[in-house]
Each structure stands twice: as C-alpha cells, then as structure tokens.
Specification:
single chain, 466 residues
C-alpha cells in the first residue's frame, strides 16, 4: 500500500494560534466533572466500569479495540477506516489519500477558501484524511459541503465546530467524521457556496443541523459530541443508506436524529442505519432515532431520561433494538421507549404490523418497549435490520464509557483516555459544555516525530523504485 503524503499548510493570517469561544458560556471544569459523574453514578454497573477501566486496553467495544491498542496510532491514522462496524462499515473516507493538516481556523471565504482551512480540504475531489495541528474552534459562516472520500479526524486535539453552520453530506459517498465536538449551530444562508474546486452555486438557507446527509452513502460518524443545535443533530434523508452512528455523546437537545423526512419518500425504503455504542444523556427529548421506511439496528446504546420518547417512527420502518440500556426519568408520562407516529399517507395496515422488536434490552425505572409486528426475533423480516452482533445489555456501561471525542493527546494508547470516561457534564437540559476544559484549551504543534516518520516512509518507498 502506498505511504500517504502529508499536506501541512502554514497559516499566513495568524489565526491558527487564536482559538475563539463561540456560543454559550462554558461551565467550569469542576462543575462539568461533578455533573457528569452524578449522572453516570446513578446508572447500574458504575463500579464495574471503574474496575474495568484499569484493565488491558481491550474493552469489548469493537471499534475502539481495533485501533486504541496501537501505540503508534497517530502515525497510522488511516487504519481507523478498517474499524467501522454496522451498515456503514465500508466507509473508507480518505484512507487511500494524503494527510491534510488544518492550520487555519478561519472560514471567511466560502467561495474561494484558503489552503490550510477545513473548507479547502472538504471540497477537494481527491481522497484526503483531514487532521488538525492543534486545538481548534471553527465557526462555519455557511454550511460545510463535503466531497466524497474524506475523513475529518480530530483525535489528539479538542476540535470544535460551533457558533455557525454545520456539515452537509449531499449526493456523495465514503465519509468518516471522528472525534469532533459540534454544538450551538444555527441556520445560515442563503449564499453562494463552493462544493468542489470546479463549482460553486447558490444554496438556500440551511436548517441549523449539525450533520445533514442527503442521498449520501457509506457514512460513518464516530466519537462525536453533539448538543444544542437548531433542528436535528443528525439527519439522513433522500435515499441515504449504509450509515453508522457510533460512540457519540448526545445531550441537551430536542430532536436528536431523523432518518427519513417525508411520508411520501418511498425511496427511503433502501435506508439501512446502525446506531451503536452511543450515550444519549440528559436534556434530550425525542428522535433517538426517529425513522421512516428503511431498516434500523439500534444496539448497545445507553439511554437516560428522555423527555418524550427514545425510539420512534412512521411509515413502517423495521427496527431491531438489541442490548440497549433504557433508564426512564421519574416522569410517569415518559416511561415508554417507543412512539409510533401517524403522519399521513399509507399506514401499512396500522402500527401493530410494523416490525419493531426489543431483544435483551435492559429497562430501568419503569421504562418499557412496545413490540409490534412479527413475534419471531429470528424472522427473516429482521435480517435487513441486523448489522452486527450485539453484546448483552449488561455490558453497556463499559461499551459506552468513552462515548464522545477522546480526551487524549498524541503519544499512543496511554495518552488516549486509557479507559477513563469523558466528562461532558453540566448539560441536564440547562446549557451545554463541549468538555475537555479541565486544563483549559491547549496549544499543540503537530508532533515532529509524526511528520518525520511520514516523510521518511514516503522517501523509502520512492527509493525502492529508483
């Protein structure tokens, strides 16, 4: 396999060393940590998780065990693409392209973006694995329209997109977004926005979602922090399919995930989505996810205190819920996990015939799941909604302990959280905090040894053919 080249831009505007805070005031580190552990401490199995945190790097989380045990992960970043599971497992992102380093946190020109910015990399036609030179906060002035075969990899730094627009994945394929924080996002536009080196055009007003997928395929969203946006945190519509949402931390938002937008969009029957290893925290109301048509495998997630419902849908989606842990709030009107919605069009014989099944889920504080459709969990009706082998619900505490971006520096597994849970406290429906502020925002330079190893490897390959 060819050794990737390294794109490392140098900012000419001086903005790379000036990180800005956008949106709401951050909570202090002590408040964040206390709130987080107060939330997690209420959940069954916390002591087991703390004991396992000091064990070997293998945790049972299939994605993390694939790469975190590699002490040289930061010089072998593109191997992450081999670690996806579920329906989005074939998303290669920028695995076969060059490394590109974001050194400029500005987004001043969305028609002619500067080299060194995130936007410049996202719109290129060739595969790119996009990384960051330091802790970075970006306020997108307009939606970031990505091109195919891209990875946004925030590992090693605190990378935030906040105070502006979100990310759009439209009519493209093979996207990986890993290890970033997205919060306080708002509608922008209409405006002229570039979507490739050869084209820009007029975009209508965006809706303020964090990540919007329109007719996108092979998409993997992993280890994200998502909170406080205007519409959905994640949406996938217009026949999007082969999607995995994993290891992410959701908090303080109303409409979390929408899969399928309209009752007349029968092309969404092709949709296959995996939702796994996520933590759905406090301050969430509904859509975890909300599904139309299509097939949805929801497994080994941790659900806490939803206000309306956790999993819902309409238009006869097939939903297989496996090995999740559902802890309802004390509100007697918010105990049911499921909600069927009548939104017009064909009801497919009534919701009683929709194939929704719970298998080995854990229900706490009165939570319950309303099954419907086929009573046979092994029925072929659920084959298209089965994407991976779920673990027992008793393992959820360990599997989701590191949901959200890793609080890690560069330097191998031991600097990448080492099993310690992330501390995104202070949400609880009263505001969001992007986490990782116990030591303040850090300024880092991309490690010299990483650059040296990449250049040395490249020269070695070239010399072999001279």
């Amino acid at each position: 396999m060819a050794i990737p080249q390294l794109h490392h831009a140098t900012s000419t505007e001086g903005s790379v060393n000036k990180l800005h805070t956008h949106g709401k005031t951050e909570l202090g580190a002590e408040e964040q940590v206390k709130a987080h552990f107060n939330e997690r401490g209420k959940m069954q199995g916390s002591e087991v998780r703390r004991q396992l945190a000091t064990s070997a790097c293998q945790t049972g989380n299939s994605i993390d065990d694939c790469w975190r045990c590699d002490s040289s992960w930061e010089t072998n970043r593109q191997s992450l693409a081999d670690c996806a599971i579920g329906f989005g497992k074939n998303a290669v992102g920028g695995k076969h392209g060059s490394l590109y380093v974001v050194t400029n946190d500005s987004d001043d020109d969305v028609v002619n973006p500067s080299y060194g910015t995130l936007r410049w990399a996202a719109i290129q036609t060739e595969p790119l694995w996009i990384i960051f030179s330091q802790d970075t906060s970006i306020a997108l002035t307009q939606e970031l329209i990505m091109n195919s075969y891209k990875t946004i990899d925030g590992r090693g730094y605190n990378v935030q997109i906040s105070g502006g627009a979100g990310i759009t994945i439209q009519g493209i394929s093979n996207i990986i977004i890993h290890g970033i924080r997205m919060f306080n996002l708002v509608p922008t536009g209409p405006a002229m926005v570039r979507d490739s080196p050869a084209h820009y055009g007029h975009r209508l007003r965006s809706d303020g979602s964090a990540i919007s997928i329109f007719a996108g395929t092979n998409v993997w969203l992993d280890h994200l922090y998502l909170s406080d946006c205007t519409t959905n945190l994640i949406s996938a519509i217009e026949a999007s399919t082969f999607i995995t949402v994993s290891n992410s931390y959701f908090t303080n938002h109303d409409k979390v995930m929408l899969f399928g937008a309209h009752p007349e969009d029968t092309f969404d029957t092709v949709m296959q989505v995996t939702v796994a290893y996520n933590h759905f925290g406090t301050g969430l109301t509904q859509r975890m996810p909300r599904c139309r048509f299509g097939y949805f495998h929801v497994f080994n997630n941790d659900y806490l205190d939803w206000k309306m419902y956790a999993i819902g849908g309409s238009q006869n989606p097939t939903i297989l819920s496996e090995g999740n842990r559902f802890k309802a709030s004390d509100n007697n009107n918010s105990k049911e996990v499921t909600k069927r919605v009548a939104d017009g069009g064909n009801d497919f014989g009534g919701w009683e015939n929709w194939n929704w099944r719970s298998s080995d889920d854990m229900f706490l504080n009165g939570a319950f799941f309303q099954d419907s459709g086929s009573s046979n969990i092994d029925s072929s009706l659920y084959e298209k909604a089965t994407s991976f082998s779920a673990k027992p619900s008793s393992h959820v505490e360990t599997l989701t302990a590191n949901a959200g971006p890793f609080q890690c520096g560069l330097g191998g597994y031991l600097s990448c959280d080492s099993g310690t849970p992330n501390t995104y406290g202070g949400s609880g429906g009263y505001g969001s905090s992007p986490g990782w502020y116990s030591a303040g925002m850090r300024n880092h330079n991309i490690p010299v040894q990483a650059v040296f190893l990449l250049l040395f490897s490249t020269l070695s390959v070239v010399c072999m053919f001279i």
